[in-house]
Design goal:
Blueprint (H helix, E strand, L loop, with lengths): L1 E5 L8 E4 L6 H4 L11 H9 L3 H7 L16 H9 L3 E5 L10 E5 L4
Antiparallel strand pairs: 1-2, 1-3, 3-4
């Protein structure tokens, strides 16, 4: 699994993009490099694939905690979270499906 989550450094957060939903990750990582385009559908898919109480808490990023059904559904919304440096990625392997093998905070570079 390879996902982008919302959260500050050292903080666990909900999944914003799950590349395992529509991508074959073995193909994506085949040449040792990663290049993916994130589109609005990627964010919507996470929310739509979230089921039950656990899915409601872990899928998608709440725009406002007072309105739990309104979650970020657009790349522009994701960009605003990125500007606050509140995005990180998790890379899971077969050996670490719940926790992760690699976590890294995402931030823009010049």
């Amino acid at each position: 699994m390879f996902q982008i989550h919302c959260g500050k450094s050292g903080q666990l957060g909900p999944i914003l993009v799950n590349f395992g939903i529509d991508e074959d990750l073995q193909t994506v990582f085949a040449n040792g490099e990663l290049s993916l385009e994130i589109v609005t559908k990627d964010l919507v898919d996470v929310v739509e694939h979230s089921h039950g109480l656990v899915g409601a808490l872990t899928g998608g990023y709440l725009i406002n905690p007072a309105t739990p059904l309104q979650k970020v559904h657009t790349v522009a919304g994701m960009a605003s979270i990125a500007m606050e440096r509140e995005l990180y990625f998790n890379l899971h392997t077969k050996g670490q499906t719940y926790f992760r093998d690699i976590r890294g905070q995402l931030y823009s570079v010049d």
